[in-house]
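Run: sequence + pyridoxal-5'-phosphate -> complex structure.
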Amino acid sequence: MTSDRRRAIDALVAAHLDPGLGADPPAGRLPLAQPTFGAAEVAEAIDSLLSGWVTMGGKVQAFEERFAAWVGCEQAVMVNSGSSALLVLLSALVETGRLQRGAEVLVPAVGWSTSLFAVHQAGLTPVLVDVDPDSLCIEGVFDHPVLAVHLLGQPSRARSPLLIEDACGAHGATVDGLKVGARGVGGCFSFFFSHHMTTVEGGMITTSAPDLADTCRSLRAHGWIRERSDRDALAAAHADTDPRFLFVSAGFNVRPTDLAGAFGLHQLDRIDAIAARRRANHADWCAAIAAEGLPLRCFPERPGTSHVGFGFPLLLAPEAPIDRPTLCARLQAEGIDTRPISGSNLARQPAVAHLPRLRLEGPFPVANAVHDRGIFVGQGHRYGDGQRDLLLRGLRRALTG
Ligand SMILES: Cc1ncc(COP(=O)(O)O)c(C=O)c1O
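>> structure
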C-alpha cells in the first residue's frame, strides 16, 4: 500500500519536475537566487502530507542526525528559521550558565539584523565591532564571547573561548578543514529558499554539547521535555507532574514541520555539489573582475578557508565615478539583481534604538564603506560563464559607459 502510494507520487512528480537541480537562469538575467530543490524533495513532502504525519516527527529527526554528521558535530536541533536558531541557541547559552544574563557578546557590525537582535532578545549585551576589510567578517583572537557571522559564504576565522557561529549563509564553508558550525560551542544555519540548501523556511542549531542540545530542544517546543535525551530522569524527578506537559524551560514554539524535514533529507544529497559549484564560481568571478581593473573590489577566498559563495559582494572604490544607487539602477537595467550587503552597518539601522544595552565599539570605517558603497549580486549552483560574462559587461557599462 505504502509503496503503491510512493510509486504514484513519484510518477506524478516526475511528470512535472526535473530530477536534478532545476533549470539554468534565463538568458540575460542574473537573479538573486534559484531553487535548489527538485523532484525528490517534493515527492517526500507529498508523502508526508498523505501519511497524515505533518508536524515535527521522524523526518525532522532523521534530517537532524544526518545534518550533524555532515557538519561534523554530535547533535543538531531543527527549528523554523535561522533567526529562531540564533534566538534558541543564545537563550540556551544563558539558561545553561555558559553566559551570564547581561554578558557582553561581540557581534560584527556587518551581519544580518537578527544576528544582532537575537543577542538582545536572549538578555545579553551586544557589542558591535568593525569587520575586517578583506573578509567583511569579524576576525581576530578574543577573550570575550563572539558571535561570528560567516558573511555571504565567507568563513570568519575568529577565535574565542566562547565562539558562537552564525553560519546561516555559509553551509559547507571551512576553516582549517573544519566545517563552520562545528568550530565553536554552537552554530546556526538557515534553510530559507535562497540559501545553499532549503526547507523553504527552516533553520538548524549544531553543537557537540549534549546538555546544550537538550536545552535547545526544550526551548524550541514550549519548554517541555518530550524530545530531550534526559526526559525520563526529569520525569522521575518531577513525579507529581504529568510528564506529557512537564515544562523545564521558559520556551518558545519555533518547531519545524515534518514537510521541512522531508525537504532537508534530500537537500543533504545535493549540498556538496551545490557548495562546490558556488565555490568555483566565486573564485572565477573574483579573478575575472580583478582582471578588468574597474574601480571596485571583490572578496576572494582566503588561505586556510573554503568560501562557498552565498551572494557575490562588491565594494565601489571611493574614487568610482558613480554612487551606489546609480550602480544598482544601471545593473538592474542590465538584468542584474542587487541587494545591500546584509544589514550593512547595523549601527546605522534605526532598530538599534530598541536595544538599550547595545555598546558600539567604533569607529566603523569598513562597515561604513559597506553601508555607503557595497552591494551583492546573486550566486547559484546553475550559474556559470554566462552569468559571469553578464556581470562583467554590466559592471563595465555601469562604470565606464
Ligand atoms: C547571516 C545570517 N544570519 C541569519 C539569517 C536569518 O535566517 P532566516 O531568514 O532563516 O531567519 C540570515 C538570513 O539570510 C543570514 O544571512
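>> summary
The chain has twelve helices and 14 strands. The radius of gyration is 22 Å.
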